[in-house]
Amino acid sequence: MLSTAPEQPPRTSPEHTPPPPTTAPPRRGWLVAAEAVVSVAAAALMVLLARGIEVNPLDRIGQISGLAALQLRFALIAAVLLLLAVLAARTRWTAHAPLTRRIAAAAAAGLFSGLVAGAVLVALRGTSWGLNANGGDSGALVRWAHTLLDTGTMQADYPPGWVHAIAWFSQLTDTDPEHSLKALQIIGTALFGPVAYLSWRLLLSPLWALGLGVVPGMVLIDPYKPYTNLMLVVMVAVLLALLRRLRRAADTPWRAIVLGGIGFGIALGLVFLIYSGWFVWSAPGVLISALVLFPWRTGRLKGLALVAITAAVFVAVSSRHLFGLLTASGSVKDRYFYWDTWTEPAYIAMWRGDLPGNTGPWPPPGELGGVGLFTILALVGLAAAIAVARSRTAVILLTTTFAGAWLLRFYFGAQMYAADAVQLWPRSTAELLYCLLLLTGFAAHYGVRRFDGVARVRAAFASPSTGLGVLAALLLLIASAGSSIGDRYMPRTDNSLGYLAAAAQLTRQLDGTCSAYAHTLGKGCFEQNDYRLGEALFEISQHAPKYGELPHPNPGG
């Protein structure tokens, strides 16, 4: 039940196992395609069900009712999945157990991000704006989309993928880019789970792909800009698959080397076009990993061919943005000094985006010399991963990537005062945290595999009951995390992530009308960048029953 898709290192490695077939059996391809369909369908179902939730998102009671309604729908779907797993665990249904595991894990991945996307849909009910209306990053993306529609081009130093998606969706639906952004924020959020799960299915079995591909990604999902952190999840999975192929290049047929190089180059190029920031932080670690894992003794020619083909295809796919980014690297300065640039730079235990809200002292006081228990547990996971699997490709990649990003973080942070530039260094928090979580997960993954030689332990892990228990626990974790994350994006007035939805609700729409619920607060709505919008939000927060929560619009009723 908890079996994995084993990695095949080269013959010179003590962990060598025979190389896999160069092509997957056709039936396996169809099964993976079925997982993709199920995962996306589960996410779409949660969003569709959220459309039927009728509450006032500017009423805190309405927000809670909306979240509860989402949880009810999630619970009913999860109960069906668990029932199928129970039936598959019965002796006469045992033959269907592998298919049931695939379906349940794929569906759970889609349900997680569908739950978050459904919460965002509830938060934006009654307004045509997306999160943050036409301000901040949303406004910049919309302006670039307008420029792209008008001129057919955009600035080359920003990843073009999401801007092109806004422009394309606007043309397809015959709507303004401002309105298209809302739909794409919800669609992008809903696809987070399926894309993360399917990326890690390149490497792991269904339940491990759910536990290692989706669970660590929970800390990264960002409905405001869903494409950024999702590309981190995909990039790490693709790089790990590439380095595994490089490590066993000597045992890989030439056809697989060529096709693999083309595939990896295209995948990395597309990730780069959607969001390229992670490549900067990852570059030192990936380079070191490639040098360590390169087949120097045997297969040098094949290894060079794989690297060369991957690099050539990557450059061909991403050339315009790649060269635009390199050209602008010496002249563009990021001077956005926000709350995270004032935070003690070694703190990476939580990534909260640009709007932290009323969090109290930040970082939160830790129990051991200012270091919190969560960080300590993550470091225990790091130590365990090195202890049980230091020669594994995943551990080598993740530890070197963490080390490289850690050094770059402090390099750019140290230059901030003299250069008067941030250069996005606080965003390395997301990658560092993700690496630690993955290392903890891989410590468990390879720790379990160490007991393969113990018959009783192996039988216990392979038991349908074990898989059923893991699935139940993961579904409950997904439900809890999805509700917590969704609640952060409910309209609030405390400078937290909820401000993004509050701005969408209280900003006048393109047709001159207010959102369907703005009048319930007695303030109406305001033009974008109208100082009265900020004043209204501040005044609401002062009269809210609890700081950071919008009041009930009709306390007497």
Keywords:
557 residues; mainly alpha; 18 helices; globular; disordered N terminus
Characterization of this structure:
- The chain is mostly helical and 557 residues long.
- Helix content is 64%, strand content 0%.
- It is built from 18 helices and no strands.
- Helix 2 runs antiparallel to helix 3 and helix 13 packs antiparallel against helix 14.
- The chain is globular and about 70 Å long.
Quickly give the structural class. Answer: mainly alpha
Distance from first to last alpha carbon: 53 Å
Strand content: under 5%
Gyration radius over CA: 24 Å
Number of helices: 18
- Approximate shape: globular
Number of strands: 0
Low-confidence stretches: 1-25, 541-549
Residues in helix, %: 55-70%
Mean pLDDT: 86
SSE ordering: HHHHHHHHHHHHHHHHHH
Most strands sheet:
none
